[in-house]
Design the sequence.
């Protein structure tokens, strides 16, 4: 039984390979034909999706065996002295879940883009990038070792760069793409370092081997170092996720990344790429677990801080995509602190449900933006539900899901995280999480009420989007509603995806009630503020104008970074350039000047008078004769070459 | 240092005569302005060299060598004379040419070798 | 006897050379030169180099000195009494010349191998002996010298004749 | 040449490789100078033959056997121990292939040249043949001879076909030449010293392997002095701080093909020489100087990366970036372990391909728009999408994106260095952040942004101009996705040539000194 499954799992490499093939086909063959390019790309991703589903079903069927013994296939990739790296695929419940989520959202987004990107000049290029992205992301999910993961991790970043800057003629898009790449690069620096230290210490980057090394001969390994060493490596590795998953203080690129086409935001900057950091921490969880508790506490603290930090900014934003972006940041913080507090399953669960409803909301927002001809300010919108019933309804489902309303998907995952936080002894983090849940519900419903309810704006002539766009919405809405049920009846999700020993935990209905209450409170507050207008948002903002300004300007973090880059980095560059031109080159040119100057002086000896030359000649003869007369032996002693060549 | 008996005509004496002629010629080359005087001084130096050739041949060579090669020093002197004759011919022709172009035989003014 | 002859003619040759380089009149210099050459020729005879002495007289005293005089006549301008001046750095030249002489003299006088008197002359020195050597052992240099002389002759003619300016 | 595959004529493979461009050059000499098209085609054919031959050598090299292969030894000046000895191993074969790749592409990168075409291609072919010679020489004398051959065409080419921007082309040419010559003067002294020391047993030799085998003839003091000479000579060639300042100015002044060859392969002679001559022959000296070299290398990396941030001219950006990247090579050599040395050679290959692609793309931009000032350019992706692809590939390779060959070589270097010089390595790795900043800025400002009407007349690269892009793009990704092809080859060079053993001894000596 398992053998047959194993045969199936061996073909997992096809899942990333197919989109890559489609990328090559589009880039080299079909790029002139928009229809062909999109068809190739969508066909490839749909095939991958069906393969992913097959593997997912296989995993479910294999059950206990695959949970305990992941199916790993490795092929040697690089083999030199001091560096052996394999490439391979790992199939376990975690990767199967990720494969399903990524292929699903990617196919939905690609189908959706048929409508959204219709008529765009770079249509083929868009699908090429999409295929490349899907391929890299899936390759990353299947990675069996850290280096392989890193390679795809960076390729995902490249695709993100290309897709954010897809409309490269817009200066803002260009700058956003650049910023995204640079910011994540800072994190990658840490990840790279962590990887190097891990390899030098353990001689492998393979997840299974690393885990085994840490588990079995932990004491032997620490002969050289101490537990602190592992902690340092854990912190370094965690720098990567900080950049990729937009944790504070490297979160600044994600809101700007909204300059890309909206489907891209849905796919890359909400559902898949940004959770790569979370996925990495989950894959490397054994490392964080073995490091001193400070590592996990740090992750929990940073995640919680990011969650509330981003949520508070989201309240004061007006751009529909930016609100969603900050919401994404906040939810990523959620997943991160879930890992930090030990809610491994909860984090992965939330990763999955969040992918469904956040992709749904982004695509919904895209639908709105499409209908309103690229207006993005929520105050320019209003009363769209009537005009766009499918978009409106599905968006509402998304809002309920993210607010943690039962029985929508977000409820189950969020509840589990919060319950675990309290249960594992992190009351402060629980409090922060709860408050963030309240804020989330508030700003998401604010968004919904302002955009879809309220008075219509006469200058808008919205109409429902074409089928290619609404069908993905409906499919994602379906998963947002029912996705959470995988936790039932006996927490099956956690049975498959867990770390260490599996503890069966019943759903804590009491705690769940509290978080639902917080969500309801948020929705209610938004309702009375923005629909009933019982509280004037303006007067509140006016009353706390300082706080409002701070939130509106995102705590001035961007400004701070800009200042640092402008003044410190570029300033240093200028200083060093000055140094190079005037000191280093100055010395060189100075030497040249000395040579030239001495040449100018010595030139005068060249009188052109033969008699002078003859005089010097004979004078030199006399001098040399005298030198030899004084003694050959002394001369030979100071012959430098004789010393250099002969010494032994 | 100098033994009076050595003042009888030995090799050193010839060599010293040659050296004196050579240095007088050298002085002429270094100190005269007229290019023809330079040429004459050079002839003096060549003569000094010839004296040396012949003197070495006379005093050192004939003790050591097979009789067929006895006059090698003379042959060398002959060649020097040949070269000197050729040199004088060409040199004087050059001087006349220069004089024709420059209206001068003054070495001080012949400094176009300067860069 | 030969010692006296030697000293007479050696001093003559040196004194004439002195005259060559000090005379203010270039024509006088040319005559002093001829005299010096003649003195050297006598020294050659004293060294049993009869043929060489003849060559010396013929070529140097006869041909070269006369050629120089012709050249002087062809190029002489201005006052003949100031025709052979010293240049500005004559004193330095003199110093260098003296130091070179000191150098050579040092070598000559300190070299014990050279402190020899004449041994009886065994070889010839006649034209016959010379020709034997020149036409056997030094055949190729001899031919080369012939070519050299021819080239010098042609070169001298061309140079002295000058290139036609207009054409 | 049809008889190539037989065993006997195998030894003639390398001579043919180096003769192909020279024969083409001779043909061009006898072509009338108006026949520019024919001249270009003949050069391309010559280089194609060379490229195919070196590719053949690369593919048929016996990994299992290792060591020098395709060898040819002809005594040249037996009294001095000079042999015309050619041969390649895993260290030099990638460099030979690189030379031919870049040489071939540089012909196409200069396809549009119209000033003194005949002379240009003659000099270019001599240059390429000279560089090739340094990599296939097994004899120090031959190595040095070829190296000196290289300098002269460069000077002439920069002066005649160069461009004057911040500095005049004459200044650039002079600086380039004098730096290289001063470097080679130090080398010459070191070489003569080495020769004398190795010849102390009465059996003079210039052969690399012989020199390396006579360790007992070199005292530690001698090794230190001789290695110092080598590091100044090769260090200025590989543009190690503070001997780097010829590099940006030189590249900026040089015509495209010279920039490509210079940044692509010529610079690498420095690194190659340091390994072949420095580490092999003078391991004790190398060990003594390694910490200082590593420090200078890290300074190179960071310093040049920062300066690249402040540049306004495209060629200067790439010029300083190549200084920065060469810092990684130097630190890897200083680390003195097999992994790092493998990485260093790999990095030289990777950087060569990348820099050549970069310079050829910049060359096309300059040729068409007559400016290299970043502020004047912008939005070129609209008018020249294919060029933009090449530019982005080069940029991504430069910042070490995985999937390109540059990443895996950089990674190998870091892996080798981090044990030996952890602090240096961390600082050096931080350099990748700044590299990303200046590369991304450049790409963004040149290619992206709103369409500019003043560049609407520019035509995209097409026809022969595409050769560099296709060739280098293929190599960058192929070797990046299948790194064993390149790094495995270098690895055989490191292990089979005895380098690994030398390095092991040295590193053990180091451990002994430490504990």
Sequence:
């Amino acid at each position: 039984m398992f053998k047959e499954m194993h045969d199936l799992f061996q073909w997992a490499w096809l899942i990333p390979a197919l989109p890559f093939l489609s990328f090559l086909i589009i880039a080299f063959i079909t790029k002139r034909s928009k229809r062909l390019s999109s068809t190739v790309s969508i066909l490839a991703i749909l095939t991958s999706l069906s393969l992913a589903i097959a593997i997912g079903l296989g995993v479910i069927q294999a059950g206990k065996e695959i949970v305990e013994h992941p199916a790993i296939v490795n092929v040697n990739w690089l083999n030199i002295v001091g560096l052996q790296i394999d490439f391979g695929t790992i199939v376990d419940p975690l990767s199967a879940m990720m494969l399903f989520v990524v292929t699903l959202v990617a196919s939905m987004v690609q189908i959706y883009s048929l409508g959204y990107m219709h008529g765009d000049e770079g249509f083929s290029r868009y699908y090429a990038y999409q295929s490349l992205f899907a391929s890299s992301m899936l390759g990353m999910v299947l990675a069996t070792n850290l280096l392989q993961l890193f390679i795809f991790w960076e390729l995902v970043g490249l695709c993100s760069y290309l897709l954010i800057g897809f409309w490269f003629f817009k200066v803002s898009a260009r700058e956003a793409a650049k910023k995204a790449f640079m910011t994540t690069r800072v994190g990658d620096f840490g990840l790279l370092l962590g990887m190097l230290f891990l390899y030098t210490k353990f001689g492998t980057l393979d997840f299974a081997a690393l885990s085994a090394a840490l588990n079995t001969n932990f004491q032997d390994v620490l002969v050289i170092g101490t537990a602190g060493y592992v902690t340092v490596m854990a912190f370094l590795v965690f720098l990567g996720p900080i950049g990729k998953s937009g944790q504070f203080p490297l979160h600044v690129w994600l809101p700007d990344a909204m300059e890309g086409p909206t489907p891209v935001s849905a796919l890359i900057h909400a559902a898949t790429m940004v959770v790569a950091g979370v996925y990495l921490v989950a894959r490397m969880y054994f490392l964080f677990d073995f490091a001193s508790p400070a590592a996990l506490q740090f992750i929990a603290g940073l995640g919680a801080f990011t969650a509330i930090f981003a949520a508070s900014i989201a309240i004061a934003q007006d751009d529909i995509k930016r609100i969603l972006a900050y919401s994404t940041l906040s939810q990523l913080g959620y997943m991160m602190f879930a890992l930090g507090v030990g809610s491994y399953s909860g984090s992965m669960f939330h990763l999955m449900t969040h992918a469904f409803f956040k992709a749904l909301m982004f695509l919904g927002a895209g639908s709105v933006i499409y209908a309103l001809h690229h207006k993005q300010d929520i105050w320019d919108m209003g009363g769209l539900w009537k005009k766009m019933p499918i978009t409106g309804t599905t968006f509402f489902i998304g809002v309920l899901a993210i607010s943690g309303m039962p029985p929508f998907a977000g409820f189950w995952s969020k509840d589990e995280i919060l319950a675990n936080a309290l249960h594992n002894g992190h009351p402060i983090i629980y409090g922060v999480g709860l408050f963030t849940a309240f804020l989330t519900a508030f700003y998401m419903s604010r968004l919904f009420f302002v955009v879809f309810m309220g008075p219509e704006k006469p200058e808008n002539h919205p109409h429902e989007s074409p089928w290619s766009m609404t069908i993905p919405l409906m499919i994602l809405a379906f998963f947002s509603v029912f996705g959470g049920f995988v936790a039932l009846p006996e927490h099956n999700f956690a049975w498959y995806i867990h770390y260490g020993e599996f503890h069966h935990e019943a759903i804590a209905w009491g705690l769940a009630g509290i978080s639902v209450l917080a969500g309801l409170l948020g929705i209610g507050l938004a309702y009375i503020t923005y629909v009933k207008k019982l509280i004037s948002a303006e007067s509140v903002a006016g009353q706390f104008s300082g706080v409002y300004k701070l939130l509106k300007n995102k705590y001035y973090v961007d400004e701070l970074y800009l200042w640092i880059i402008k003044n410190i980095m570029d300033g240093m560059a200028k200083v060093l350039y000055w140094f190079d031109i005037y000191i280093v080159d100055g010395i060189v040119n100075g030497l040249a000047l000395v040579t030239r100057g001495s040449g100018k002086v010595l030139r005068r000896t060249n009188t052109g008078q033969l008699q002078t030359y003859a005089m010097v000649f004979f004078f030199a003869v006399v001098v040399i004769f005298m030198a030899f007369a004084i003694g050959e032996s002394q001369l030979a002693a100071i012959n430098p070459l004789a010393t250099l060549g002969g010494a032994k | 240092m100098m033994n009076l008996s050595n003042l009888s005509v030995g090799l050193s004496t010839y060599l010293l005569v040659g050296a004196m002629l050579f240095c007088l010629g050298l002085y002429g080359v270094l100190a005269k302005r007229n290019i023809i005087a330079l040429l004459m001084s050079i002839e003096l130096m060549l003569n000094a060299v010839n004296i040396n050739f012949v003197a070495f041949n006379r005093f050192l060579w004939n003790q050591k060598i097979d009789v067929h090669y006895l006059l090698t020093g003379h042959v060398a002197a002959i060649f020097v004379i040949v070269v000197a004759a050729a040199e004088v011919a060409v040199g004087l022709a050059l001087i006349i040419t220069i004089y024709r172009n420059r209206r001068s035989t003054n070495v001080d003014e012949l400094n176009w070798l300067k860069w | 006897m030969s010692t006296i002859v030697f000293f007479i003619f050696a001093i003559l040759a040196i004194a004439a050379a002195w005259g060559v380089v000090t005379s203010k009149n270039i024509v006088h210099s040319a005559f002093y030169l001829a005299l010096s050459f003649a003195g050297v020729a006598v020294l050659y005879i004293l060294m049993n180099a009869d043929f060489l002495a003849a060559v010396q007289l013929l070529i140097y005293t006869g041909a070269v000195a006369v050629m120089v005089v012709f050249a002087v006549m062809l190029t002489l301008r201005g006052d003949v009494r100031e025709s052979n001046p010293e240049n500005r750095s004559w004193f330095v030249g003199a110093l260098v010349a003296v130091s070179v002489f000191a150098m050579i003299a040092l070598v000559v006088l300190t070299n014990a191998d050279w402190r020899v008197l004449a041994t009886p002359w065994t070889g010839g020195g006649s034209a016959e002996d010379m020709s034997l050597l020149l036409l056997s052992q030094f055949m190729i240099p001899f031919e080369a010298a012939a070519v050299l002389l021819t080239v010098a002759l042609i070169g001298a003619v061309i140079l002295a004749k000058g290139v036609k300016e207009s054409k | 040449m049809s008889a190539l595959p037989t065993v006997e004529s195998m030894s003639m493979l390398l001579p043919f490789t180096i003769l192909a461009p020279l024969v083409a050059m001779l043909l061009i000499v006898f072509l009338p100078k108006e026949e520019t098209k024919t001249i270009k085609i003949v050069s391309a054919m010559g280089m194609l033959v060379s490229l195919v031959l070196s590719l053949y050598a690369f593919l048929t090299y016996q990994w299992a056997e290792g060591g020098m292969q395709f060898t040819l030894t002809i005594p040249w000046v037996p009294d001095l121990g000079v042999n015309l000895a050619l041969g390649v191993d895993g260290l030099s074969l990638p460099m030979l292939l690189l030379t031919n790749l870049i040489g071939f592409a540089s012909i196409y990168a200069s396809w549009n040249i119209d000033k003194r075409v005949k002379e240009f291609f003659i000099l270019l072919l001599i240059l390429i043949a000279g560089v090739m010679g340094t990599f296939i020489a097994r004899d120090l004398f031959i190595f040095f001879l070829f190296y000196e051959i290289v300098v002269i065409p460069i000077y002439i080419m920069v002066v005649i076909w160069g461009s004057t921007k911040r500095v005049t082309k004459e200044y650039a040419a002079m600086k380039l030449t004098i730096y290289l010559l001063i470097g080679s003067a130090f080398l010459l002294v070191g070489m003569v010293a080495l020769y004398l020391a190795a010849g102390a047993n009465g059996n003079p030799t210039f052969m690399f392997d012989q020199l390396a085998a006579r360790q007992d003839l070199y005292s530690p003091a001698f090794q230190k002095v001789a290695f110092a000479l080598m590091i100044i000579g090769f260090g200025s060639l590989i543009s190690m701080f503070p001997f780097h300042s010829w590099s940006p100015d030189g590249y900026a002044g040089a015509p495209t093909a010279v920039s490509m060859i210079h940044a692509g392969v010529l610079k690498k002679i420095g690194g190659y020489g340091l390994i072949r001559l420095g580490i092999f022959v003078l391991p004790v000296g190398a060990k003594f100087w390694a910490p200082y070299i590593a420090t200078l290398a890290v300074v190179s990396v960071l310093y040049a990366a920062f300066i690249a941030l402040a540049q306004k001219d495209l060629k200067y950006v790439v010029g300083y970036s190549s200084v920065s990247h060469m810092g990684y090579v130097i630190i890897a050599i200083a680390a003195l372990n097999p992994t790092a040395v493998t990485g260093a050679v790999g990095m030289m290959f990777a950087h060569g391909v990348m820099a050549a692609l970069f310079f050829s793309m910049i060359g096309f931009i300059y040729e068409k728009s007559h400016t290299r000032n970043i502020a004047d350019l912008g939005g070129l992706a609209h008018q020249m999408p294919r060029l933009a692809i090449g530019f982005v590939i080069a940029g991504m390779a430069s910042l070490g994106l995985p999937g390109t060959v540059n990443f895996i070589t950089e990674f190998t270097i870091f892996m080798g260095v981090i044990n030996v010089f952890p602090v240096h390595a961390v600082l050096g790795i931080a350099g990748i952040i700044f590299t990303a900043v200046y590369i991304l800025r450049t790409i963004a400002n040149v290619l992206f942004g709103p369409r500019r009407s003043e560049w609407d007349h520019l035509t995209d690269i097409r026809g022969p101009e595409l050769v560099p892009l296709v060739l280098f793009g293929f190599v960058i990704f192929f070797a990046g996705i299948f790194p064993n092809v390149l790094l495995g080859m270098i690895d055989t060079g490191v292990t089979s040539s005895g380098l690994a053993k030398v390095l092991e001894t040295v590193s053990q000596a180091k451990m002994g000194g430490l504990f």
